[in-house]
Amino acid sequence: MMKEIRIHGRGGQGSVTMASILAISFFDDGNYCQAFPSFGSERTGAPVQAFARFSDKPIRTRHQIYEPDFVIVQDITLLKSVPVYKGIKDGGKILINSEAPVKDVINELGGIKEDAVVMFPALKIAMKILNKPIVNTTLLGAFSALSGVVSIDSVKKEIENRFGSKLGKLNAEAAQTAYNYIKGDKSGF
Amino acid sequence: MKQVLEGSMAIADGVRMAEPHVISAYPITPQTHIVEHLSQMVADGDLKAEFIMVESEHSAASVVLGASACGVRTYTATAAQGLLYMEEVIYNIAGMRLPVVMTLANRAISAPINIWNDMQDAMAIRDTGAIMLVAENNQEAYDMHIQAFKIAENRDVMLPVIVNVDGFVLTHTFEVVETIDSIDKVREYLPPINMEYKLDVENPYSFGTLGEPSVYMESRYNMYNAMKYSSKTIIDAAKDFKNMFGRFYGGLTDTYKMDDAQTVIVAMGSVLGTIKDVVDELRDSGKKIGVLKIRAFRPFPEEEIVNALKNAKNVIVIEKAICPGKGGILSVEIRDSLFKHKINTVNVNGYTIGLGGRDITPKNIKDLVERAEKEENVDGEFIGLAQQYL
Does A166 touch chain B if contact means CB atoms closer than 8 Å? Predict the structure, then answer.
C-alpha cells in the first residue's frame, strides 16, 4: 500500500530537506521510499513543492503527486496563490503552519472538510526552541503524530543525523515537542 | 548495504567504487551534486583520485582525454549545454579509442533556457562513437557506472561510455539503493586498467595525429566495428555483474510482461517506472500489453528490438527528444530495424512527451495506449500541448 505526501513551501524553507528526512524515516521504519523536489528554479521565496512516497513494495512510478494522502503547508500565505488542497484524497489530511483557527482559512481550501485541516503553531514552537523561523523539523514531528505513518523515533534519528550534534538535538527536540502537542501534551510548549 | 541515497550520491558512490584516477568536471545543473560529492570524497581521502578543476566543459573533457591517453582510469560528468560544449572533444576521445566514462544528467537544450529533464542532449551526441547506456532508476545508475568502466576498458572495445541518467528525476530523487560493501569484489569484477597503447616516454606513441585519406576511413571503420562488438561486452558486463552482485537489468534491452503482448511501449530511462505501473494496471484489466526497455541506445540493439516487437500489433515509442524537420528519433530507428527484417505488420507510433521537464503522468501513458490502437505511423507528434501558447 503506497501513501503519498505533498509538501508546499517557499524556496529556502527546507521543503526538499523535509521530504528527504521523511523518506529516510520511512525507510528506517521498514518501508520503501522516494522523495523528490518539484524541480523549481530554486529562487528564495518562490513557491516550491516537494514530494515523498512510501510503500511496502519497491516504488517505480516517478510522476509528481496529484492525489496526496497528506499535504503539509509550511507557509500560510501560499494559500492565496497555490491550490495546496488540490487532489487530496478522501480521508486525507492537510497540516498547516499557522496559529489561526481553521474557519479563517477554510474558504481558501477549495471546499475540503474542516476536520481534514489541522492548524498547527509550528512557527511558535520553532521560535521557542530553535529561536529561528525554520519550521520544517517542527512540522515533521507534528506530521508523525497526526498521520501515524512514520515513527517519531525515526524522524528524530534522521534529524540528528542530518544536522549534527548541537543543531540536530535542538531540531529533534522541536520535532518531539510538536509531536507531543498534537498528541495533546502541551507541557513543553 | 541498503540505504536511502539521492541519485547523485548513488552515482558518485558507484564511481568511487570504480576507483578512477583522474576526475575532471565543470558544474552544471542537474549534474552538479554528482561532482560535488566526488570532489568531497577526494578531499576527505575516501577516493584516491586527482580531481582537476577546470574553467569549462571543453577543458574537462580535454583533461580526461589527456589523462586517459596516459593509461589511467578517468571520469567526467555533464549535462545539456555543457555536453554540447564538450562534443568536439567527445568525438576525439572516441576516435582515439580512450575508455573515458561519463555521466550525462539528461537535460533539455536551450533556447528557451530550461534546466529540466528530457533526452535532447543525449540525441545530439549519438553519432560521436561513444557507447550510450540509459539507467532506469538509481540502483541501476549505481550499478551501471561500475559496469561502464568494464565495458569501456575492454581491449576489443576501447571506447568512451556515457551513462545517461534523467536529470532531477533520478539525480535529485532520494530512494533506496543497495551499495556494494566490498571494494575487493568490485576490484575482482573490474580489474585495474591496462591499456595496450598509451602515452609513455619509454615506449612512445602518438594519439590523434593527422589521419590522411589513405588511413582515415580504416581508422573510422575500426572504431565503428568496436562499437558493434561492444554489444557483446555490454551483455557480458551485465551478466558478470549479476553473477557477482546478484542484480540484473537486461543486457542491451529488457522486457516486461511481453508474453502474448499485442501492444508494446518502448522507452528509455526513468519513465519506464511509471510505464510499468500503468502496464500492471492495464494487464489486470485484461489488456495484452508489455514494455520494451532500451538499455543501450548506442550500440543500437536492432536484433533484440526486432525479436521483441515482431509479433506486436501496436508499438508506442516514448520520444523525449525531437528531430525538427523529421519527427521522432527512437521511433525512426525502430521502424528501420523492423523494415530491414522485412516485418511490416507492426504499427509503430512515436509520441513526443515530457520535453523540458513536463511531468509524464500515468494518464498520459494510458491515453497513448488508447491512441496508438487507432493511429498509424505517428511520427513524433507532441503530446499535451497548452493551446494558449501555440
Answer: no
Q: Do residues B351 and B360 make contact, with C-beta atoms less than 8 angstroms apart?
A: no
Taking only residues 367 to 386 of chain B, the set having a beta carbon closer than 8 angstroms to any beta carbon of chain A reads none
Q: Locate the domains of chain A by residue range.
A: 3-182
Q: What is the pLDDT of residues B150-201, one digit of tens each?
A: 999 999 999 999 999 999 999 999 999 999 999 999 999 999 999 999 999 9
Q: What is the pLDDT of residues B21-79, one digit of tens each?
A: 999 999 999 999 999 999 999 999 999 999 999 999 999 999 999 999 999 999 999 99
DSSP run (H or E) holding A3: strand A3-10
In chain B, residues with a C-beta closer than 8 Å to the C-beta of A25 are none
List pLDDT tens digits, range B324-366: 999 999 999 999 999 999 999 999 999 999 999 999 999 999 9
Q: How far apart are the first and last CA of chain A?
A: 35
Which residue of A lies nearest to B137 if distances are taken between CA atoms?
A60
CB contact A56 to B (< 8 Å): no
Q: Which CATH architecture has domain B2-245?
A: 3-Layer(aba) Sandwich (3.40)
Residues 65-104 of A with CB under 8 A from B: 66
CB-closest option in B4, B172, B362 to A63: B362
- Report the C-alpha gap between A47 and B387 in whole angstroms: 25
Q: Mind telling me how many Å the CA of A113 is from chain B's nearest CA?
A: 27
Residue A132 distance to chain B (closest CA, Å): 27
**The CATH number, out of the four listed (3.30.499.10, 3.10.28.10, 3.40.920.10, 3.65.10.10), of the domain defined by the range A3-182:** 3.40.920.10
The Cα B197–Cα B184 span in angstroms is 27
| Residue B229 burial class via C-beta count within 10 angstroms: exposed 0-12, middle 13-18, buried 19 and up | middle
pLDDT in tens, chain A (189 residues): 999 999 999 999 999 999 999 999 999 999 999 999 986 666 788 899 999 999 999 999 999 999 999 999 999 999 999 999 999 999 999 999 999 999 999 999 988 999 999 999 999 999 999 999 999 999 999 999 999 999 999 999 999 999 998 999 999 999 999 999 999 988 766
Contact B174 A60 (CB under 8 A): no
Distance from CA of A151 to the nearest CA of B (A): 17
B280 interface with A at CB cutoff 8 Å: no
- Count the Cβ atoms, other than its own, within 10 Å of residue B296: 24
User: Nearest by CB to B172, which of A24, A36, A66?
Assistant: A36
B116/A63 Cβ within 8 A: no
**Residue B149: predicted pLDDT:** 98
Q: How many CB atoms lie within 10 A of CB A99?
A: 12
d(CA B134, CA B150): 16
Are B176 and A27 in contact (CB < 8 Å)?
yes
**What is the number of residues in chain B?**
390
Which three cell numbers, joined as nine digits, stand for A132? Answer: 529561528
Chain A residue at shortest CA distance from B114: A41
